[in-house]
Amino acid sequence: MPLISFTALKTPWRQVSWGNQADLQYVKNFQLQNDQVRHGRVLLYGPVGAGKSSFINSVSNVLRRRITSPALTNATNEEERSFTKKYETHNIKKDTGQFYPFVFNDLMGLEEGSGRGVRVEDIKLAMMGHVKEGYKFNPASPLSTSDSGYNPSPSPEDRVHVVVCLYSGNTTEINSSVLQKMKAIRETASDLGIPQLALLTKFDEACPETEKDLKNVYKSKLVKRKMGDLSSKLGIPLNFILPVKNYSEETQLNDDVDTLILSALRMMIDLGEDFIDSKL
């Protein structure tokens, strides 16, 4: 049930072309121009339950035009512990049998307190390409150079090209210890020059206007306030924060859900290509 009722703004504060197929065609036709890299790598991080795995599945749904599940998700209400344990790369297959030139890496969620959830040190190593596929995160100690999960010689496509923070709009407040971890991850990405985005998920669960009609997302005072709070606390500019509704209860695709997902995805792959062209 929605948490709070807010009156909607009369006009949207951002313009959206609802149902426009341009973003879908753009993503379908997208090709990296740098021949050293076969795919851009998008790293997703955020608190437990923010919807990282669900976002990967939602992107797959939109591009494959059906409900899919490449990333396992947890359907219980026990969101205080991370469901994802390993460092896994998720790619999305085209109708041709080939794969899209971008991949997603899902991480163990950020948890309250020390010794729980993914460690910031491991996320930094992942950004630099030093974490091998299938490495099982250990909340008690970071990955070391002597560990079998450590990649000593990462290739350009092992590196992360875009870092994306996901945060639930259905959360009342960011826990202070989790926020400090989020800030440390942002600073690390900034030091490495990696472009960053933030996605506000699950806002429809908190806002009556968007639960009733997703097209009200940029008329919602609650959504605007949540995005502004995230911007001020993390330092990510507001124009690099996007609201996204993941597929959760739906068994059929929805044009409005697709519109928000594709808008975020297009920005991700563009920023990733910019980084690859300038840094690699």
Uncertain regions spanning at least 5 consecutive residues: 1-5
Radius of gyration: 18 Å
Number of helices: 7
Q: What's the CATH topology label?
A: Rossmann fold
The CATH architecture category equals: 3-Layer(aba) Sandwich
Q: What is the arithmetic mean of pLDDT? A: 90
Assembly form of the protein:
single chain
CATH class: Alpha Beta
| Molecular shape | globular
What do we call the CATH homologous superfamily? P-loop containing nucleotide triphosphate hydrolases
What is the N-to-C order of secondary-structure elements (H for helix, E for strand)?
A: HEHEEHEHEHHEH
Organism: Oreochromis niloticus
Protein name: G domain-containing protein
Summary of the model, kept short:
The protein is of the alpha/beta class and about 280 residues long. About 30% of the residues lie in helices and about 15% in strands. The radius of gyration is 18 Å and the shape is globular.
Structural commentary:
With 280 residues, the chain is an alpha/beta fold. The protein has a single domain (33-73, 80-278), classed as Rossmann fold (3-Layer(aba) Sandwich), CATH 3.40.50. The protein contains 7 helices and 6 strands. Strands 2-3-1-4-5-6 form a 6-stranded mixed sheet, with helices on both faces. α3 packs parallel to α4. 42% of the residues are buried.
